[in-house]
Amino acid sequence: MQRTRATTPTSPSSRPFPISEPIHPEPIPEQEESKPEAKPSRWKYWPRLEPAEWDILIASTCLKLLLFPAYRSTDFEVHRNWLAITHSLPISQWYHDTTSEWTLDYPPFFAYFEKLLSVPAYLIDSRIVDLNNLNYDAWSVVAYQRTTVILTELVMGVALLRFTRGAADTSTQKIISASLFLHPGFLIVDHIHFQYNGFMFGILLWSILMARNDNKLASGFLFAVLLNFKHIYMYLAPAYFIYLLRSFCLSPSGALLPMRFVSLANAVIAVFLVSLGPFLLMGQLPQLLARLFPFTRGLNHAYWAPNVWALVTAADRVLLQFVKGGRIQSMAVNASGVASTSRGLVGDTVFAVLPNVKPIHTFVITIAFQTIYLVKLWRAPTYKSFLTALTLCGYTSFMFGWHVHEKAILLVLVPLSLLAAENHAYFRTFMIASVAGIFSLFPLLFTPAETLVKVVYSVIWAIFVFAPLHRRVYEFPRSLPFVIIDSVEKLYLAGFPLLQLFVTLFPIATQHSASMEFLPLLLTSVYCAVGLVWAFARLSVIYLKQQY
Amino acid sequence: MHRHGCKQWVAPCALLAALWVRWAIGLGSYSGQDTPPMFGDYEAQRHWMELTIHLPPRQWYTYDLQYWGLDYPPLTAYVSWLCGIVGAWIDPSWFALDASRGIESEGSKVYLRSTVLFFDALVYLPALWLFVRTWLADRSARTQESAFLLLLFQPSLLLIDFGHFQYNSVMLVGFTLLALNFFETGRDLLGASCFVLSLGFKQMALYFAPAIGSYLLGKCLYLGPAQGTRLFLRLAIVTTLSVLLLFLPFLPPFAPLPTILDPITRIFPFARGLFEDKVANFWCASDVLLKWRRRLSAPALMRLSTLLTALGFLPGAAGLIYGGWRMRIVGVAEESQKPAPTLALLPYALLTSSMSFFLFSFQVHEKTILLPLLPLTLLLSGASAGEGSETFELGMLVSNVAVFSMWPLLKRDGLGVPYIALTLLWNRLAGYNPFRACPNSMLQYVSLLVHAASLGLHVLELLFSPPARYPDLFPVLNVLLSTPVFALTWLWSIRRGMQVGWALGGPSSRTKDSKPAAATEKSARHDDKIQGGHAQAGMRMTSLGYAQGRRRHVPRNGRSASISSAVSGTSQGGFERS
């Protein structure tokens, strides 16, 4: 829609609505949806909300408001401390301050963002931005910080809204947009645990939207901005790089288009200059980078993120039991490994039986897998192909990365959601990955009061997303292997209620013996890892076989 | 939702969402949190669990009355006992006698919240669903579902039960609603015993008693001498037995006779004065000018208030009895299995009676507005999607004013944010916006005015602290704003009761062949006027669906459709345009 409009030179307000129609052979979907009385020129720039969209916005805001007093992780204090740092210290001190143990370790744009937020915070309650007022948790700061999460998440809301305008299949896109806006991942991580993912994924989605609308310069610019908000999005950078290079900077025949290349390069460099420039001038770049990339952590996080390494670590524990039991003599046991992983505590993971994994190994595996997808993307640089490659890039990093956090699964689920209704294969992959991914976020909230909140919300979300999408894309499995796969997958999904039941009841049943308290976490991690690895394999195969 | 072929998911999802919202409210603070030494209602309920599991029944109503002595009827005590037993099994320290006073551990809070949710899900939610299925049985599935949604999210009840902490959904709405459902299906005995349970849970259910009693009496009259007398006797026996059963542990074989006096004196505290806090009723509002307590003695005031209350509920009760008598029939055997035609009057009579108690009786709390809200919400849910209908407009206005009238209490409990969130959610669910561009009836002007005034009051309270001379300035203004609306509702309920009664008793009221009558009724629904609706067959419509007479012509902005979609997140009900 926007593309076609942009090519018409007449001023939008003077252009009567029906005239633009014969120009395009395909029907324009928005026309059906736009209100007859609305002037067509207005909503194009300022999308109007339809009643159902208002419903979603109001209902979700009300639900989020109810979660104000819910459990908060230390990330809440982390962000409060950053408000204090950026408000009370000069910029030269931001990345040096160590008053609190929660030092600033996000890129500069996020620091600027916090600086911006700290201004109203100071007006509301000056104690919020007091650097030495550690662990401040008065109602004012809780309400303020929670409100900023809700408000900044609207960036994502707007991006998703614009996805629905001009989508090929508007009603399906509406379901997908709504599913993302109401994603349990955001509810758990942002509105309870406390982070600003909604805001940053909003920028990511906006960048993807620009790619869809063939405005690749803006797409690259926005992604550069995003990288300077949170560097974890580097997981996705290879796909962006290849896509923009191939489809924007090179002509279809492979010739370099210098103007485009230079403009894109300039845009990206400008963003980085604005972000890093001040620190470059102050000579603080090494300090900043040291904060952003602390290479001192172990392979697994405290709670194993459900990736390949969780499975490997679990296999190691199982093998250790066998070795201890004397059933396998040939393997040597690494003594320090016996104690290391038993509780899954923070620190370097040392395997007892299997060979140890070093950062360089994970790095090489990740790059190797990503290269496969990027070659495919280079050959087929379409939007859909880009979206899948983007998902797979994030997915590979999540699967094989060093010290991956379980929250990083959102990097996979968000772009994957945009693909959910492509066909049944994509949908099934999306379903498995979403269920396993969201379930793997549950341990973030370990307090009993929040158990009901996260489980019931996720169930409602799942019904409202899976049921209509399933009806749209369902295909009958066509051969015996597919039937078997289909049934096994269903069986796997059916296991989740049982797992939740076990996780809930196990601590009650074993109140008095503390020796097995890690079991529910371990089981959750391994069970989710199985599903996520399987979904990864599925998506890889689908992508590589797909003809674009 | 319906568009996407997910019809079968609507009701379960609504239920799940309702549970979620209830629990999420519970994450917040409760009445009396962190306020030793007395704490609040939360501690009272917990304390009752503690004392019932540790003491024999005869001491329940006498043990250390200064510290939250039990002052609810025995069913509350039994429920507390059950909760206490289970809780003590999980963690005995939550309910240790005396030692656990004021305990505020995370675990005990989660447990107590979960008991409210459990009883709500056990009694209230099924009762709501039954109500929608029986009273609105002849309405479309969609209307039933939107009514159900609306009933599920009544903000006042949610805030008091799950925020402030009480078990009202069991008492007033739960058992009373069940009683209504049984009346609708003609099972009067079950209904009566349900109402006794309701009374036995919280004496406040007495507010409904005149209406319920007159309905049953009216039905006895309606059935004629033979059948009526039989029903009357049966009702008397069942009711007495239920009451006896409830008070069994306090009666002779189990306890000496004087023991029965303990619960009775605790339940009816006549010695506590006309009113305590600021509450939006007649006494408190007029006290600003008239200073009742200086002019009259306490006994005189009590007599006066009793008289006014009785006068207040008389129209409703009389309408039921007189209606039953006027339409009496003689000796049709299966009639006692059906509801009396006066059932259509019952919601209005309940509203009249409970509102008159709220306005005029003794010792009313601001939370008591929940009782008049029950019949009003029921009426509202039947009229829900109709824009411009009187029931809908008034129902939404009163519902909003009711939650507004509890604001001082909610503010004290630290429930400001849920208050905003739930009120907003409820109005969106109902598709109600008092600030619409052009009000086109008197009522809409009034509601615009009231809403603007209450918003203004909130803003003022936020910006300015009250002057030192009048520390209660804002609560008093709140009372002065809310009381007229409640009084208006009371008058409205009397008027509507008379209208519906007149419509029932119209010329064709005796026609027993219900088929043609029903047909006329159905067609009449599509007309703009339905005055003088015909027969018993359509009585539910004349009552709950009267407002639907002005059948919604699917508002262009799709409000009606969006109701079922508000929680859906994926729906596009809003696009349904005809």
From TrEMBL, chain A:
The keyword Amino-acid biosynthesis does not apply. InterPro entries: Glyco_trans_ALG6/ALG8. It is a multi-pass membrane protein. One of its GO terms (cellular component) is endoplasmic reticulum membrane. GO terms for biological process: protein N-linked glycosylation. It is an enzyme of class 2 (transferase). Belongs to the ALG6/ALG8 glucosyltransferase family. This is Alpha-1,3-glucosyltransferase. It comes from Wolfiporia cocos (strain MD-104) (Brown rot fungus). The lineage of its organism: Eukaryota, Fungi, Dikarya, Basidiomycota, Agaricomycotina.
Automatic annotation (TrEMBL), chain B:
Pfam families: Alg6_Alg8 (PF03155). Residues 1-28 form the signal peptide. One of its GO terms (cellular component) is endoplasmic reticulum membrane. This is Alpha-1,3-glucosyltransferase. Residues 505-578 are annotated as: Disordered. The keyword Methyltransferase does not apply. Residues 522-531 have a biased composition (Basic and acidic residues). PANTHER family: DOLICHYL GLYCOSYLTRANSFERASE, DOLICHYL PYROPHOSPHATE MAN9GLCNAC2 ALPHA-1,3-GLUCOSYLTRANSFERASE. Pathway: Protein modification; protein glycosylation. Residues 560-570 have a biased composition (Low complexity). It is a multi-pass membrane protein. It is found in: Endoplasmic reticulum membrane. The chain crosses the membrane at residues 78-98, 110-132, 165-183, 204-225, 231-251, 300-325, 345-362, 369-386, 445-464, 476-494.
